[in-house]
Amino acid sequence: MLFNSLVFVVFAFLFFLFWPFLKYTRRPAWIYLIVFSFFFYGWWDWRFLFLIILSGLIDFVAALLIVDRPRYRRLWLIVSMSGNLGTLAVFKYSRFVWENLHALVPLLPAAPPVNDFFLILPVGISFYTFQSMSYTIDVYRGEVTPTRSVLKFFAYLSLFPQLVAGPIVRARDFLHQLDAPRCTDEATRYRGLELILHGYFKKTVIADNLAPLVNAAFSATNPDPSSLYWWIVMVAFGFQIYCDFSGYSDIARGLAKWMGYDFMVNFNHPYTALSLREFWTRWHISLSSWFRDYVYIPLGGSKRRKGREAANLWATMLLSGLWHGASWNFVIWGGVHAGFLSLEKVFRYPALLVRTRPGRLIAFLIVSVQVLVAWVFFRAPTLPQALDILRIMFSFSGTLPATFGVSGLLLIGGMAAREFYIYLGGHPFFRRPAVQTAMLSLVVWAIIFLRGKGQEFIYFQF
């Protein structure tokens, strides 16, 4: 069920119609959340509900056994991680692994035909498995006391606003919110409305209007030979994926506020970063912090010798790339970021550049180019196409095609203007009720009359 669909509008209306009568309870509220969340997720394919139920039950029981049977606590943690990673392996990576083994060892048979059920990637599987797995890990570390209510646990795990595309919510940040009555005041409800409308604006007006430009460029049989064309396309894709993903996160956070809950900020103006390290503290924060806490730091983080520190960084970024999809392009995308991050650590040039205003501009341009180069591998369907596009981008040749419209440039400029507006939002003038009402009215008008053709959220495929 897409946020940008009429079906979801009806679904949300029915949910919030009765939520005020239940939000002050506990068990009835949990049941209500589970029923609506399961319906929301089952709208795509009801069969995959069994996956989230199985994954959740494994982690719910494993967490209790870690506390109640501490002698075998490591075993229960392994059971939990095996269940989650095993599910990912079967539904997301099994065919990828087999095809690569077949390429390395030609004597192996080709990937066998399997039931269509196992060829479908369950929506949001990477999000809810990581969320469920983090719960057991935190219980093992003693950072979370496991709940003994299976209803409370599934109300946390399956909560529909963030179920299929994040942000990844940690149990230590959210379980306690399910205990107290969820009261909302006028300011909270208004903030929720702002987030929802800004999220829809980013998705429907910016991302969905940029999508045809980007899709046409990457679906062409032969890449256009213009260097300028591809730099514009990659800037367009950078804004498309940012508005698409952060738009979903904004809508999820806004819906949560209407429900009386708080989700973490998932994006914090990542394209204003002056180093790639800063970029990763601003982009998809719930995932980057997940890999930091559960992969990078357990491997030793930055507290080991330089060689080991670099290996930890590369392992984390390569796994982050693989998390996004069963494709070498995603792994290379993670490797490109790891390489640029390693250069930053070795030469420490961001710290030197940010001391002056011209230096900050140079640092901004360096990060922008690095991110755009990496995005090529992320978006291109094949590695040869990605390499061809990069070759063209850095040939600095050709002219902008005559058929290339100005709509993409206008949208990119509109996105930049929106970011500028957000920054100005802290100024008292822009917090006046009359100004806020006028700006939100303009946003609503744009959502209705300037929306692009409806597109599925990009991160649903992960």
- Strand composition percent: under 5%
| Low-confidence regions | none
Tally of contiguous helical segments: 18
Biggest β-sheet: count, sense, barrel? none
Helix residue percentage: 55-70%
Counted up, domains total 2
Structural class by helix and strand composition = mainly alpha
Order of helices and strands: HHHHHHHHHHHHHHHHHH
Number of strands: 0
- Radius of gyration from the alpha-carbon trace, in angstroms: 23 Å
Shape: globular
Mean pLDDT: 86
From the N-terminal CA to the C-terminal CA, the straight-line distance is: 16 Å
Descriptive terms for the model:
2 domains, mainly alpha, 0% strand, 462 residues
Polypeptide structure, described:
The protein is an all-alpha fold. It folds into two domains: 6-183, no CATH class; 187-449, no CATH class. 68% of the residues lie in helices and 0% in strands. It is built from 18 helices and no strands. Helix 11 packs across helix 12. The longest helix has 34 residues, at 186-219. It is globular. The model has no long low-confidence stretch (mean pLDDT 86).
